[in-house]
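Researcher: Go.
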Amino acid sequence: MIIRSAEFEISAVRPNQWPEGGLPEFAFIGRSNVGKSTLLNRLLNRKSLARVSAQPGKTRQINFFRINDAFRFVDLPGYGYAAVSKRERSAFADMIDEYLLNREPLARIFQLVDIRHEPSKDDVAVHAALLELDVPVSVIATKLDKIGKSQVQKHLKIIRTALSTPVQVYPISAEKRIGLDDVWQLMEADLEAPVYRDVEPIDGEDAKDGKDS
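Model: Structure:
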C-alpha cells in the first residue's frame, strides 16, 4: 500500500461526531500499553500522527484518521488500565460498544495483544465479545522484537489457546517493521471487496445526525 495522504480527522465521543462519507474503517483496539499508537504510525510511515503517550490510558476519545481519502484507521481507547476510575472505564466501554455495534462502514477489527505475555482476562473477554459481532476480527501480537525467534511459535500458541480463537494471529514488531506487510495485505483484500453491515439505528437524535450518508 502506497500512503499518499494520512491525516488526523477527528476525536469523537458521540455518534453525531463520527465522520460521514461511508469510507471503510479499520478499528484497532487493545490494552493501553500494547503499542497501538506505534503500530499505527509505522503502518502509515508517519512519526507521530497517532500520539504515543507516556501515560497509558490517556486516550479518552475515538480517534479517526483519513488515509488516501479512501479509508480510515480508527484508534479506540485502551482498556484494562488500573489508574482509570471505574466510572471512566464504564464510559469508555459504552463509547466503544456503541461504535463497534453501530458503525456501518466498519470493515475489520484488529485486537492487539502483547506477544510476551499470556492474554489478560480483559483481552479474553474483549475477544469473545468481538467474535460475536458480524465483522471480521484479526489479532495482532505486538512487540515481536522483544522475544527470541525460537520462542515465537510457543508464544503464539499461548495466545491462541488463551483466547480460544479461530482467527489468525499476526506476530508484529512495529519498531523493526516486521510483519506490517501481512497486515496491509489483509486490509487491501478487504478494500477490494468491502462488505457493509446491516445495523440497527441507534435510538435518539444524536444517532440520526451521526449516521453516514
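Model: Strands lie at 6-12, 25-30, 62-67, 71-75, 106-114, 137-142, 169-171.
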